[in-house]
TrEMBL record:
<dbReference type="GO" id="GO:0005524">
    <property type="term" value="F:ATP binding"/>
</dbReference>
<dbReference type="Pfam" id="PF00005">
    <property type="entry name" value="ABC_tran"/>
</dbReference>
<keyword id="KW-0547">Nucleotide-binding</keyword>
<keyword id="KW-0067">ATP-binding</keyword>
<comment type="similarity">
    <text>Belongs to the ABC transporter superfamily.</text>
</comment>
<keyword id="KW-0813">Transport</keyword>
<dbReference type="GO" id="GO:0016887">
    <property type="term" value="F:ATP hydrolysis activity"/>
</dbReference>
<dbReference type="InterPro" id="IPR027417">
    <property type="entry name" value="P-loop_NTPase"/>
</dbReference>
<dbReference type="InterPro" id="IPR003439">
    <property type="entry name" value="ABC_transporter-like_ATP-bd"/>
</dbReference>
<protein>
    <submittedName>
        <fullName>ABC transporter ATP-binding protein</fullName>
    </submittedName>
</protein>
<feature type="domain" description="ABC transporter">
    <location>
        <begin position="4"/>
        <end position="227"/>
    </location>
</feature>
<dbReference type="InterPro" id="IPR017871">
    <property type="entry name" value="ABC_transporter-like_CS"/>
</dbReference>
<dbReference type="InterPro" id="IPR003593">
    <property type="entry name" value="AAA+_ATPase"/>
</dbReference>
Length: 295
């Protein structure tokens, strides 16, 4: 089922085009990352689809219209810094959130277990680390058993340990079958958590698809030889090759991991092939992301 359909959505603040004719779709069960530099329109997009701010033009639809105007009850969202009563413990803070939402409280222990805070449920919120506070906020967003969890920069400001803990929490929730929509400017975060990604800059969608297709960790090398067909056939039998398309008289070899030019050259020589061209064309995941967003 299509959980979210965005069609040519735009939002302008004076002359600033925060979001410009953005279209994308999220299917049920996806962990969908909206990836882009700071100021690219990620938060504005989430604000519009959550009904917090009104679009200038375009439209969006949740759950193929199944719930009508009541779709918000099926969404859980964390858009800002967690805001709880510092003198109350986790259990009491979540009970208050459940009361405000009109949701049952019988499963609060399960939610605390899901975010790995059950052992600290009687500790005051003021004693929590930033990562623990963020995980409690995720638990609060899950109250009412929403079908979709929406997160805006969920690891922002956290130390490495906090980032790892929040990341694992999100993966655990995704593993339950929930649909997750997460905005982030951190490529590594999206790659490790999400199954699909949409890359945006200046409010426009630049690329979308599975993480493997858009943010591939293949190591790319241009190869050439006098007998290109022999080289191509040999490459397809290489144990580390994923694919090797021929483009403009050269082979673009996709290796499963980084390999030195000396290693590749020695391998070709062992196959009886003398390379006439050998050039790595991919340095890192960050380089690919920067290439997509630099135009």
């Amino acid at each position: 089922m299509r959980v979210l359909h965005i069609d040519n959505l735009s939002k302008h603040y004076g002359r600033i085009k925060a979001v410009e004719r953005l279209s994308l779709e999220v299917e049920a069960g996806m962990a969908y990352g909206i990836l882009g530099p700071n100021g690219s329109g990620k938060t504005t997009t989430l604000g519009m689809v959550l009904g917090i701010t009104r679009p200038a033009s375009g439209s969006f639809e949740w759950f193929e219209g199944r719930y009508g105007a009541g779709h918000r009850r099926h969404l859980g969202a964390l858009l800002e810094t967690p805001n709880f009563y510092p003198y109350l413990n986790a259990e009491k803070n979540l009970s208050l959130v459940a009361h405000i939402k009109g949701a049952p409280t019988h499963n609060l222990d399960e939610l605390l277990e899901l975010v790995n805070l059950r052992h600290r449920k009687t500790s005051r919120f003021s004693t929590y680390s930033l990562g623990m506070k963020q995980r409690l906020a995720i638990a609060a967003a899950m109250i009412g058993d929403p079908e979709v969890l929406i997160l805006d920069e969920p690891t922002n400001g956290l130390d490495p340990q906090g980032i790892a803990e929040v990341r694992e929490t999100i993966r655990r929730i995704a593993g339950t079958g929930k649909t997750i929509i997460m905005a982030s400017h951190i490529l590594d975060e999206v790659e490790k958590v999400c199954s699909h990604v949409g890359i945006i800059k200046n409010g426009q969608l630049l690329a979308s698809g599975t993480v493997g297709a858009i943010i591939s960790d293949d190591y790319l090398v241009e190869l050439g030889a006098e007998d290109l067909s022999t080289l191509h056939k040999a490459l397809l039998s290489h144990p580390g090759i994923k694919k090797a398309p021929i483009e403009e008289g050269l082979i673009i070899a996709h290796f499963d991991e980084k390999r030195s030019t000396a290693e590749i050259n020695a391998w070709a020589f062992q196959q009886g092939i003398t390379l006439s061209h050998l050039r790595p064309i991919r340095k890192s995941l960050e380089a690919e992301f920067l290439e997509i967003t630099s135009n």
